[in-house]
Write a structure and sequence with these properties.
The structure is a homodimer of 385-residue chains. The longest helix of chain A is centred in the middle third of the chain and has 16 residues. In chain A, strands 1-4-8-5-11-12-13-14 form an 8-stranded mixed beta sheet, sandwiched between helices. In chain A, strands 2-3 form a two-stranded antiparallel sheet. A two-stranded parallel sheet of chain A has the order 6-7. The two termini of chain A are 13 Å apart. The relative contact order of chain A is 0.14. By secondary structure, chain A is of the alpha/beta class. The first copy, chain A, contains 12 helices and 14 strands.
Chain lengths: 385, 385
């Protein structure tokens, strides 16, 4: 046992494994009916896969992405890409999610935040509606975590994949992972909700409304009809700045931005903005280039509406889960704190399941579930094997 | 010892003590020079006192108020007032801060949030500047926690009070209390920072900027010149809604607002706002009637600039404190979490002081330091006596 762990850690640490080269693929549904009875036609999402599908298609692991993320979970598109996919530390040859053994699939959600990233394929408000020849804007229907799962289900059906060895996702990805296990209990064998929750409490949903507010108040938003006049960049950048801060713990935030105590200008001038705030906004402004303000609003809404089973009783919905489950909240998470994972695990226990629970250590807060995931690589490896 | 505590608890619990009747008084400085070298002339603040000043003026306790608070710390103006001052649970005859023994003074800060409350006297942007005959607006200088302390010092000087048995305040009041002990170490014998901190970290300062944002973005704000055209009520109400949420823990927030999971409208319509959000805003809108948007911006700025000693090294500044000190953070505080009190206490310990530390239990989060203060009444009583 020990020697296995040590071998595994050595492979992780060796750094000799070349980055996987990966490709984006396109999945098209000619028509998709949303949970609230609307039709989207067609609906496109991008997807990536790592490793090889075995003969009986029994080695599939589905990765579901977080709010600001995409299907690019691992590898690089080109050898000289600045960075690999977000969970490259745990997905690849000899890694915790071992692509020598598993066929790992990851897909973009509808209304993906990164609507203008050339590596993302998504249908949402920024998409031209073929029926009108115009961008959907706010005529796009409200979509839910359940809708995201149904699109992924259609993708897997199209590939002839009927069983999932595991579904794993961080944050909003955990919502999708849990919904998979609730809707398709016979097909999901293992479930790992990372920095997640089986429900959105009112407090957290209102915090998300505060991400939407700067967009809704930006005069350039024009009720979502800004595609000719230009994005509401002020509102969008502010929303993205809030998301960055909320995903970090003070211990990692403070050293990264100008110290407020050294900010002499704001003592002289009430209209001066703190330097740290300006830095945060400038970084967000760069990210805003590839994102769409309306898509952020739709992701906020999908997240606000989240509860397992999407019905009246998320606790009861969890009783349908048959998957072996491992909750992995981050100890320092201030956005979806461990309490939410604990409540979710308790509800699952009350429903007769026996979920495992471990915490991700680190100083990044919520982001420890993304950038700090290697801290629990061993637990993930052990749980999958 | 035990019998004393039991007697004390019985007095607290008996409820037979009539509400103290209290009066607002006015203190005027003909001219005040701010830390950044500006002049405010005149400067008025309101103050209240409970108990009797003894002959040698040695029984004074100063109470410093929180961000949204005022000098109304205890008692009622009229017997039929709906509620007494915010810390009435611990200030009064036979209470933790016993007015049979102590003369308790509390004053409004400059730029007090409640500029249009008839029980608050404060000078700030909403005040008419006699030099121009117009409201100050943004021509009012940036003021600091140090400035608040200097105004209180002038008030106490005017009363011939040279020593303070204790300075006690919650939240922004803790900042003032600590600054008192740093600036006037020979005069402050005891210090109790409640739900507070000896410094504002960059993370917390940026969270405060997010309170300012809705006001700054409201077109009705008009760069602070709205006194003829009407307050930026949308921005102000939103800011106050954020303050309410940030001061609460999810355990107390969630049961008070409509459950997000029962909010069917937001699943049908992307433009629908969550009911809980509307409730929160409606409550804030009522409070906004008595508050001034510019004053909120100035309080945000004073809080952002806060660090003990208002210089380059707050840790070093704490070495000047001679007061016996008791930090009282609230366990569930998500706004100024116990970590900030711990860091403050550690810095004070490193500087040679021996601060005491205890946590306020409860489910209200930051607000446990106000509405839940009776949970530590016994510790406060013991520390003062």
């Amino acid at each position: 046992m020990f020697s296995k762990i040590i071998l595994f850690l050595c492979v992780i640490a060796s750094g000799t494994v070349q980055a996987m080269l990966v490709q984006k693929q396109r999945f098209t549904l000619d028509s998709f009916t949303t949970e609230n009875g609307q039709t989207i036609a067609p609906l496109n999402v991008g997807w990536e896969a790592y490793g090889k599908l075995n003969a009986d298609k029994s080695n599939v692991i589905l990765i579901t992405h977080y709010f600001s993320g995409s299907s690019h979970a691992a590898g690089k598109y080109h050898a000289d890409d600045a960075a690999p996919g977000y969970w490259d530390a745990i997905i690849g040859q000899g890694k915790a999610i071992d692509t020598d053994k598993f066929y790992v699939i990851s897909s973009d959600t509808p209304v993906n935040a990164n609507a203008f990233d050339s590596n993302v394929i998504t249908t949402g408000p920024a998409t031209i509606n073929p029926a009108t020849g115009k961008r959907y804007g706010l005529s796009f229907p409200v979509v839910t975590i359940g809708d995201f799962v149904e699109v992924q289900k259609a993708l897997l059906d199209s590939l002839g994949i009927a069983k999932l060895h595991a579904v794993i996702g961080p944050s909003m990805g955990s919502f999708q992972a849990i919904e998979w296990a609730v809707r398709y209990p016979e097909q999901v064998q293992r479930l790992i909700p990372v920095i997640g929750s089986a429900y959105m409490d009112t407090y957290s949903a209102i915090k998300l409304q505060r991400w939407a507010y700067p967009i809704l108040q930006d005069p350039a938003w024009h009720n979502g009809n800004y595609y000719d006049s230009g994005q509401p960049l002020q509102g969008l950048s502010t929303a993205l700045a809030y998301i960055t801060q909320d995903a970090l713990h003070p211990d990692s935030f403070n050293p990264r931005y100008s110290a407020i105590s050294a900010d002499a200008g704001i003592h002289q001038d009430i209209t001066a903005l703190p330097q740290a705030w300006q830095q945060l906004l400038a970084q967000a402004r760069l990210r805003a280039e590839k994102q769409d303000a309306n898509h952020i609003l739709y992701l906020v809404r999908a997240s606000q509406l989240w509860r397992a089973g999407m019905g009246d009783n998320w606790q009861h919905a969890l009783s349908r889960v048959k998957a072996k489950t491992l909750f992995l909240p981050a100890t320092g998470d201030l956005l979806l704190p461990p309490q939410l994972s604990k409540h979710s695990a308790e509800a699952m226990t009350a429903a007769g399941n026996k979920p495992h629970y471990a915490e991700i250590p680190g100083s990044f807060g919520h982001l420890d579930g993304v950038v700090g995931i290697s801290a629990v690589a061993q637990q993930i490896h052990a749980f999958l094997n």
